[in-house]
Write a structure and sequence with these properties.
Helix content is 53%, strand content 7%. The chain has 454 residues and is of the alpha/beta class. The chain has four domains: 132 residues, 3-Layer(aba) Sandwich (Rossmann fold); 82 residues, Helicase, Ruva Protein, domain 3; 90 residues, Zinc Finger, Delta Prime, domain 3, CATH 1.20.272.10; 73 residues, post-AAA+ oligomerization domain-like (Orthogonal Bundle). Helix 12 packs across helix 13. 29% of the residues are buried.
């Protein structure tokens, strides 16, 4: 591995740390006494999977580990390579081990993009120790990496870099005269450093790309205005704002962040927190999520977590979908925010959801139970002869529109599926059901008393 990255390479590549002591962030892995530092000190590297967002240091840590144990390092892109290249790497690894005893570390970038058969191609060589596999993924390994391969690797979780970590990397790049921007004698306003560190959104590579662009803009402006001036040039906050234009948020509509954010939105709604609900909804919109997907999720939420505690909630959710469909972005997004605020502040009940789950379980357990005869329709004489509809009581014939008859199959008679809460409108429903039961109970007691005294 070369000691110096070519000058024409991007700044982010040139500034990639070569030693663990130069690595910034992920102290839970690289700090004193932590796992990766112990591995390097012990001189043995097992197969690993680095799981973390872009720019958190996955590739850098892999190269540092390989360098520390003097292993042959092979960079392998799951996007560009396939099983054919794996065979070539395996043959090369066998030759190196036989001739010099040198180990091979195979770094697979975006390993989640490999299908099952491609991942299985690694298995025998990882198991035999011929290859030490280090995979990098932004996706949840539980879902994207096969169980046999995952069982042979230790998963290490990397976090987005903190703004203060990003700021440290930026200042180092400005000062570094070998691989960084030090030769240009650039200064940078503290406000500019802060803006850039926050805009990077935990992504070190993105921060250095921003910095390189801002530096070029600053140098070009000075060259136009005062080409002979040798005074230090300053990257201003205004220059950084011009560089950033519009911040790109870390979001993947089909990946881990999608599920993390929709979970945060749903739980904020359920916990009656309008601020959290509006924030996570806005985050997903800013990240490029389909607004109609968000509308559909809120429609589901209105039934699942509010139900009859506020029957209006479902209509509000449906209206927000229709409003967005009519207006589009950005005008229609406010309707989604309005719905989120309403759903978050509505009384909550999962009585319908719980009842439905219980019904499905009973259906699965009891199968296709026949409809009781008294509930069946009897349009023909033959059906009446077989007892269809016999004994059915027509509710409207009663002064209270209440009748005492079973509406479930005999095997489930008396089962209660819907148990309304005391929250919101459901309290009215609960009170109504309680009164009806009392009326029917009193009637039954009256009929029993009359029968006993007759």
């Amino acid at each position: 591995m070369p000691a110096r990255t070519p000058r024409h390479s991007p700044l982010a590549e040139r500034m990639r740390p070569k030693r663990l002591d130069d690595f910034v962030g992920q102290q839970h892995l690289v700090g004193e006494g932590k796992f990766l530092r112990q591995l390097i000190e012990g001189g043995t590297i097992p197969s690993l999977v680095f799981w973390g967002p872009p720019g958190s240091g996955k590739t850098t840590l892999a190269t540092i580990l390989a360098r520390a144990v003097a292993a042959h390092f092979v960079f392998f892109s799951a996007v560009l390579s396939g099983v054919k290249e794996i065979r070539q790497i395996v043959e090369q690894a066998k030759t190196l081990r036989e001739q010099s005893g040198q180990a091979t570390i195979l770094f697979v970038d975006e390993i989640h993009r490999f299908n099952k058969s491609q991942q299985d191609a690694f298995l025998p060589h990882v198991e035999s120790g011929l290859l030490t596999l280090i995979g990098a993924t932004t996706e949840n390994p539980s879902f994207e990496i096969t169980a046999p391969l995952l069982s042979r690797c230790q998963v290490l979780l990397l976090a987005p870099l903190r703004p203060e970590d990003i700021a440290q990397v930026v200042r180092r790049a400005l000062a570094d005269t070998d691989d960084g921007l030090g030769a240009h004698r650039l200064a940078m306003e503290e406000e500019a450093v802060r803006l850039l560190a926050e805009a990077a959104d935990g992504d070190c590579r993105r921060a250095l790309n921003y910095l390189e662009t801002a530096a070029n803009l600053t140098l070009e402006a000075r060259q136009r205005q005062a080409p002979e001036d040798e005074a230090p040039r300053t990257i201003t906050a205004a220059c950084v704002r011009e560089t950033l234009q519009q911040k790109t948020l870390r979001y993947d509509a089909g990946g881990e962040e999608h599920y993390n954010l929709i979970s945060a939105l749903h739980k904020s709604l359920r916990d009656s927190d309008p601020d959290g609900a509006m924030y996570w909804l806005a985050r997903m919109l800013a990240g490029g999520e389909d607004p109609l997907y968000l509308a559909r999720r809120m429609i589901r939420f209105a039934s699942e977590d509010i139900g009859n505690a506020d029957p209006q909630a479902l209509q509000i959710a449906l209206n927000c979908r229709d409003a967005y469909h009519m207006l589009g972005s950005p005008e229609g997004e406010l309707a989604l925010i309005q719905a989120a605020a309403y759903l978050a502040t509505a009384p909550k009940s999962n009585a319908l959801y719980a009842g439905f789950a219980k019904i499905r379980a009973d259906i699965q357990r009891t199968g296709s139970l026949p409809v009781p005869l008294h509930l069946r329709n009897a349009p023909t004489t033959l059906m009446k002869e077989f007892g269809y509809g016999r004994g059915y009581q027509y509710a409207h014939d009663d002064r209270d529109a209440l009748v005492a008859q079973e509406h479930l199959p005999p095997e489930l008679a008396g089962t209660v599926y819907y148990e309304p809460t005391n929250r919101g409108y459901e309290a009215v429903i609960k009170d109504r059901l309680t009164k009806w039961k009392q009326i029917l109970k009193q009637r039954a007691q009256h009929h029993a008393h009359k029968k006993n005294t007759a």
